[in-house]
């Protein structure tokens, strides 16, 4: 056992080092040594609010800035509490139902986790 990681593409155990890269002789896949340590961390995306608190599904957040609703004349007012958020991938990383407006996407930089 050489202590080198298996190939992330074909799971071959015959990987070898080539400078700052790992190489798989079976499928010719190459990856950096830095990426090898972060392979387990790729699945976990941490979403933080405007002040740095970690957000999770089901949290309650407060809007910290008046937000114009695109395609409408409505505004989400500062201080609006949004319950039961859902984290998603993308530019607007929070899916939620804003009271009085309905379902919409928010950016985490404009909310603060409620106490």
Q: How is this structure best summarized?
A:
The protein is mainly beta. The chain has two domains: 1-40, N-terminal domain of TfIIb, CATH 2.20.25; 60-113, SH3 Domains (SH3 type barrels).
Protein structure class: mainly beta
Shape summary? elongated
Q: Write the H/E string, N to C.
A: EEEHEEEEEEEEEE
> How many distinct folded domains?
2
What low-confidence regions span 5 or more consecutive residues with pLDDT below 50?
none
For this structure, the CATH topology of the largest domain is: SH3 type barrels
Helix count, DSSP H or I runs of 4 or more residues: 1
Q: pLDDT average, as an integer?
A: 87
Strand content of the residues, in percent? 25-35%
Give the radius of gyration: 21 Å
Give the oligomeric state: single chain
- Specify the biggest β-sheet: 3 strands, antiparallel
Q: CATH class of the largest domain, anyone?
A: Mainly Beta
**Spatial order of the strands in the main sheet?**
1-2-3
Share in helix? under 10%
Instruction: Please provide the count of β strands.
Output: 13
Sum up the structure in keywords:
single chain, 115 residues, mainly beta, N-terminal domain of TfIIb, 2 domains, 3-stranded antiparallel sheet, 1 helix, 4% helix
């Amino acid at each position: 056992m050489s202590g080198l990681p298996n190939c992330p593409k074909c799971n071959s155990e015959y990987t070898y080092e080539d400078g700052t890269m790992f190489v798989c002789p079976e499928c010719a896949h190459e990856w950096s040594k830095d990426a090898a340590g972060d392979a387990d961390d790729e699945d976990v995306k941490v979403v933080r609010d405007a002040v740095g608190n970690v957000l999770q599904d089901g949290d309650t957040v407060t809007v910290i800035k008046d937000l114009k609703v695109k395609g409408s004349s409505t505004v989400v007012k500062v201080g609006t509490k949004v319950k039961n958020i859902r984290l998603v991938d993308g530019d607007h990383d929070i899916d939620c139902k804003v009271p009085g407006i309905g379902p919409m996407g928010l950016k985490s930089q404009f909310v603060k986790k409620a106490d």
